[in-house]
Write a structure and sequence with these properties.
There is one protein chain. This protein is an alpha+beta fold and 206 residues long. The protein is built from six helices and eight strands, in the order ββααβββαβαααββ. The protein is 38% helix and 23% strand.
């Protein structure tokens, strides 16, 4: 039976309200070997054959993503590639800097699950609340937004004030002040001049 906890999250409106949201408690990891053994137990295929097939599929998915395809697996979902600027390269802008392929790299893979896949999980999922004495808490307020900002910059390379305001649920003025505070504390670096400037991670954090 799957377990869940209620995790505390600060309000994204900048106030002190804290709301609890359910989160699946991940206590163990299931390996390919375990999955292969369970399939082998109910089919005529050997565990080794199933493992080999799984690894072959993952290699072919990687090859297709590298060629610029998205990969759709019926009943599962769609895989697609994310790109970002390599360390040391500034974003392209209309007036000057142009980027070429040498300045880019794959930063990750996005997965969009099939609705039927989610429905099957939901039908089979039986939840019980974990017996934990306290709620697991995220860092609240500005510290929590800083972690979200770092994650965003790791994936996208740069951010502007209006994007930060939208993501964090802040006003433009509040977002600008907070980014300036992060810059003064050397968490991020400002590039360019207002109102066309943007923010990136320092080189030692990228």
């Amino acid at each position: 039976m799957a377990k869940y906890i209620m995790q505390e999250m600060p309000s994204m409106n900048g106030d002190k309200d804290v709301i609890r949201y359910p989160r699946m408690l991940i206590e163990h990891h299931c390996s390919v070997k375990q999955i292969a053994q369970e399939i082998a137990d109910i089919t005529s295929f050997s565990k080794g054959e199933i493992e080999g097939l799984i690894y072959s599929i993952t290699e072919h998915i990687a090859d297709k993503l590298a060629q610029g395809y998205s990969v759709k697996i019926d009943g599962l979902g769609i895989f697609s590639t994310k790109l970002r600027l390599r360390q040391g390269f500034e974003p392209e802008n209309i007036e000057g800097t142009k980027r070429n392929a040498a300045s880019l790299e794959v930063s990750g893979v996005s997965f969009r699950s099939n609705k039927e896949f989610v429905r099957r999980i939901n039908q089979s999922c039986h939840l019980e609340r974990a017996q934990t004495p306290t709620y697991k808490k995220h860092t609240q307020g500005q510290d929590q937004r800083l972690e979200r900002l770092r994650a965003y910059l790791s994936d996208h390379g740069f951010i502007k004030v209006r994007t930060y305001a939208s993501i964090m649920g802040l006003s433009r003025s509040s977002a600008s002040r907070e980014l300036q505070a992060f810059r003064r504390d050397k968490h991020i670096v400002s590039v360019g001049y207002s109102p066309h400037n943007f923010y990136i991670l320092p080189k030692n954090q990228d």
